[in-house]
User: Fold this.
Amino acid sequence: MARQLDEQIVGRFPVGQRLRVLDVGMGQGTQALRLVRAGHRVTGVEQDPKMVGVAREALAGEPEGVRERMRIVEGDGRDTGVHFLPGSFDVVLCHGVLMYVEEPDPLLAGLARMLAPGGLLSLLVRNGDALAMRPGLSGDWAGALSGFDTVSYRNRLGLDVRADRLKDLTATLAGIGAPLHAWYGVRVFTDTAADGAEVPADVETLLAVEERAGRTDPYRGVAALLHLCGVRG
Assistant:
């Protein structure tokens, strides 16, 4: 996903431009820290105090020049309008968040308002068109059968959450003024790997395969996750 995001940033903004980035639901700050190390100014929003603590600890270990370019806000991603002015950011990330939001449209509209004209909105969502894949490949035939006609599922944390269908998000992005520009699949072949599985020695080849599949039909359409990139008109 990081490679996909970098591809969109490089294709949209001048090389060397220091971007204003908002990461909503930043978790432990993986993408936020990666982008701030690349020279951008990043604001991360996260409501889980544990994740905020992990992100702050990681940031504390960075050089001063990196630390001064990153701001962490403990709060709900649905309250961006409380903290920031419209059009304040060139890039807005919302990765792995929508599955926990029962009504995502207001959140998405708020994120689009944060974008400057021409800004990039990056979403990572559970693929509602592929919910039968994981149970089917695992031999859970009853689970696979039920996955065809629903957007609800139980994740690996044991939580009942929801997925999004590409056609629905395409319509939503058009409606909020950040129409879909590009989309990718994420975890096409590796979704059934066990949690904590050992990283293979040929991990670079694995990543090359996933990156290729994530941009190639029909593979990307059955990925566990979808990476959607909208552009503010």
Q: What stands out?
A: The mean pLDDT is 96. Residues 49-60 form the longest helix (12 residues). The two ends are 24 Å apart (CA to CA). Strands lie at 20-24, 41-46, 70-74, 89-95, 115-126, 152-154, 160-162, 180-186, 225-231.
